[in-house]
Every structure is written in C-alpha cells, then in structure tokens.
Amino acid sequence: MDKKPRRHPELDSGSSIDSRFRGNDSKEGMTKPTVLLDVDNTIFDREAVRKIEGKLIDANYGNGAGRRFRQIIEEVRKDVGWGDIKEASIRFARERGSSDYASALAVFLELPFSQYWRPHAKELVEYLAANFNLIIFSDGDDTFQKEKIEKLGLYKKAREVIISRSKIELFFGFSKKYHGKLIIIDDRPKVIEEAKRLLGNVITIWIKHGRHAQGYERVNADLETTDLKEVVQYLKSNHSKDY
Ligand SMILES: [Mg+2]
Known about the structure:
This is FCP1 homology domain-containing protein. By secondary structure, the chain is of the alpha/beta class. It has helices spanning 46-61, 65-80, 85-95, 102-109, 121-131, 142-151, 154-157, 167-177, 189-199, 228-238, and strands spanning 7-8, 16-19, 26-27, 30-31, 34-37, 133-139, 160-164, 182-186, 202-207, 223-225. It folds into two domains: 7-45 and 117-238, Rossmann fold (3-Layer(aba) Sandwich); 46-113, no CATH class. It has ten helices and ten strands. An eight-stranded mixed sheet has the order 1-2-7-6-5-8-9-10, sandwiched between helices. Strands 3-4 form a two-stranded antiparallel ribbon. Residues 38, 40-42, 186-188 line the site of magnesium ion (MG).
C-alpha cells in the first residue's frame, strides 16, 4: 500500500481506526481467521523504551526531569483517563515557565522505535500478515501510538489499525464486524480475560511480558508464553488451516 489509509471514527469516540478493511479475505469461499494483535509489550518492548525516555528527558532538561515528566503523565492519566503525552508535555513546559511543549513532545515522537521490536516479533508479523486478516489493535495515547505504529511499518502490514482508549468496549462490535474465527494476542490479563468472557468463541494468546503481566501466573488463555516463536508454532499447528 503506498498511501496512508483513510481515517474515520468508529464505535466509540476515544478510538481511531485507520482502515483498508473491506470484510475478511476469503479463500475457496471460506473466511480467513482474524488476528487482533496488540503492540506494546506484545511485539514491541515498551518497558525498554520507558527506561530510555526518562534518560532522554534528563539529558535535555536536567537530572530529575524525567522522573517529574513521568509523574505529570500519571497526573494527566487521572485527569483525562489516559496518558496523553501532548497534554503532559504542555504541563511540563508550563511548570518550567515555557510555552515550548513541542520540544518535550518531540523526545517521545522521535524515539528510535524500530530498535525495540521484541525477539521474533517481525517474523510473527510477517507470518500473520501472510496467513490471517491482521488487525493491529493497540491502546494508549493516539499521537504517540500512531507515530510508533507508522515507524514500525505496521500500517503497511495490517489490513486495519485500531488505536483504542477502551479495548474492552470495542469487543461488542467485533463479532458483527469480523466474520470467522477471532484470535487475540495481548499482554494485558484483563484484555485476555474479558475477550473470553465477551466474545465467547475466541482464541486467546497471552504474552507474558511487561508490567501488566507481572503478578499473574495464568489467565486461562489458549496459549500463554513469553516467546513469540512459540506463537507462530502454535498458530501453524492449530489455526492456520481453519478456513
Ligand atoms: Mg500491550
């Protein structure tokens, strides 16, 4: 695809969907399974990036600035419901007596995202794009996620990119929208558990990586692993010929 897919709001006001989705592909009259693939801490090492963000803010604004920025993000999360990085940058700049929030925001938007793929994540994406209806299903700050997803080249690989502020709310529309089997791959125990509860006949794959997975041993997913190579093996053995 050489141009960016058009953007339109759908289902809830807090989500954006970049779509070239026109119904599931079919092969010999049957419907390919749809894979909803999360980004942060599933295929992308968000924890590793979190560590360098603070250091970069410190380098630009002095020791302790990174920690303060992180506190401001948490304050913003309480006020608006998600970690809005632009709003946090505005507050951070204001606190320092400046109106130049763009420089702080740029620290986040210009991170070297492509250095932080999780091991075997690229192979997983290639495999999914070739064999399934691949939907990138991400959550968090819209601007930051878009930049990251673009720089990881995922708009080109996926049939659709959804950035949601409430993944679980979107589940209600999915069984109508995607025909055939649904497979969800995510690191958040809550997302995995609610997918099973709300979507019923869904295959869940829990990626045990990062801060959300910590403290959980099992979440009753169909596959639970840290290893993305294992995800490919599992799908090859169990679900690639389901259409
Ligand atoms: Mg995640």
